[in-house]
Design goal:
Layout lengths: L7 E2 L11 E2 L19 E2 L6 E6 L2 E9 L6 E9 L2 E10 L1 E7 L8 H11 L13
Parallel strand pairs: 1-7, 2-8
Antiparallel strand pairs: 3-4, 4-5, 5-8, 6-7
């Protein structure tokens, strides 16, 4: 079911430094988790761009990805009010840690290649209507 744009509330501007992770698996839980006690990534190099960790015995390779300039990441939560559904912003973020099973993330991954579209949108200035009156 599509949710109309007027039913999306972006008013909450809580931009904290909690880590946002995108894992390559399905976890039957939505919400915050105390990951810092159980999920501690180790850096492969000094600049801490490439990370390694084990999740339930499976190796994961990750990389921190910044949201492109001029854009924000939003975590939305669905709430039902009367007969309509609304999406409310519960957190904004400027970076996310993206994980792959046992291989380093690359631009060939759908998640990372989707971020290239933000750059492609900036190729030229907006096109103005050139119709003559």
């Amino acid at each position: 079911m599509a949710i109309p744009v007027e039913n999306i509330n972006f008013s909450k501007e809580e931009n904290d430094e909690k880590c946002i992770h995108s894992l390559p698996c399905k976890i039957h839980f939505n919400g915050e988790a105390n990951i810092s006690d159980f999920f501690i990534p180790a850096s492969e190099n000094e600049n801490q761009e490439e990370l390694d960790v084990s999740f339930r015995g499976y190796p994961l390779c990750g990389v921190k990805v910044k949201v492109p300039d001029g854009y924000n990441g939003f975590i939305l939560q669905e709430k039902s009010e009367n007969t309509s559904k609304k999406l409310c912003c519960v957190r904004t973020f400027k970076s996310i840690t993206y994980w792959n099973w046992d291989k380093k993330p690359s631009k060939n991954d759908p998640f990372l290649s989707a971020l290239d579209w933000a750059d492609l949108c900036q190729i030229h200035d907006p096109i103005e209507d050139e119709t003559e009156d």
